[in-house]
Amino acid sequence: MLHEALESKLGGEVVVRSTSVSGRIFVVARKVAWAVLNGPGALNFSSVLIRERVVSREDVEQVVAECRQSGGNFCETLVTWGLVPRDTMRDLLRRHMSEQLEALLSLTDAQAMFVPQPRTYSSQLTYGLDELIPLKEESEVMANVKQTLEETLKIEGAFAACLADSKSGMCLGSVGGTPAFNIETAAAANTEVVRAKMKAMSMLGIKDRIEDILITLGEQYHLIRPLAGKEGLFLYVALHRASANLAMARYKLSEVEKTLQV
C-alpha cells in the first residue's frame, strides 16, 4: 500500500490498523511527508523534541498556538523562529518517522488502506522511502556507537563518555556518569567550547584540525576529541584526575576513534 501511495500522482494517506495500534502515513509529491503511530507508548514529535532537550515545553506551546492561528507547519515554524536549525530538524524528523514506519511495518496483524487525496503541504521536509528505511543499517551504527563508548569507559580513570554533535548539542550515545555528573548535559554545554575553538582557528587563518581539547579541573579531566572524518561530531570523556594517566588516555581515545563507524 505504501508503494502504491508513493507511485500515485495524487498522493494521499495510508491508513494502518491492528488490534493494538493504528497509524497514518501521509504522502505528498511521491515522498513521505509524515508518519504517525497511535498506541501504547507512542510519542508524538513534539514530545520527542522536549525529551531530547532540543526545545522547551514553552517553545512548543507557543509554536503550536501560532500554527493553529496561522495554519503554518509545526516543523517549519520551529526552523523559521530560529529554535532548531534546518539540518538538525531534517535529521530529527527523519529519525522519528523512521521509528514510526518501522513500528507500522513490523505489525503482523495489521490491515492497510490507501486513500488517494491531493493535499497541499507547507513544508519542504519530505523524504524518499530510501531515506527512512535503512533501519537495519542505522541500528548497526548505533550498536557500534554503544560498543565504542563502552570501550572508552575502559580507559583508566574514565567514568563517563559520550558521542555528541557540536552543531545541535545533542548526544548520539552515552555511557556512565554519576548522580552529580550528567555526561549528556556536560557534552551539550561543551559544544560551545568546540565551536569557539573552531571560530578562533578560522579567525586566525589556521588551516588545521583539532586533535583534542583538554579541560583540567581540580578532581577531573575532560577530554574532547573531534572526529577526523565526521565534521561536527566529537567524543567526550570525563576522567578522575587521581587515577587517570593523561597521556595514555589521549592515546587510547585516538585508538577508540578508529573503531567508530558513523
Quick description:
The chain is of the alpha+beta class. It contains nine helices and nine strands.
Could you give a short account of the major beta sheet?
5 strands, antiparallel
Q: Bin the helical content.
A: 40-55%
Shape: elongated
Strand content: 15-25%
**N-to-C SSE string, H for helix and E for strand:** HEEEHHHHEHHEEHEEEH
The residue-averaged pLDDT reads 86
Strand order of the largest sheet: 6-5-9-8-7
**Unreliable segments of 5+ consecutive residues:** none
Structural class: alpha+beta
> What is the rounded distance between the termini?
32 Å
How many β strands by DSSP? 9
Q: Rg to the nearest angstrom?
A: 22 Å
Layout of SSEs?
Elements: H1 2-7, E1 12-17, E2 22-28, E3 31-38, H2 45-51, H3 57-70, H4 74-80, H5 86-105, E4 111-116, H6 129-132, H7 135-152, E5 158-165, E6 171-176, H8 183-204, E7 213-216, E8 220-226, E9 233-240, H9 246-259
Antiparallel strand pairs: 1-2, 1-4, 2-3, 5-6, 5-9, 7-8, 8-9
Helix pairs in contact: 7-9
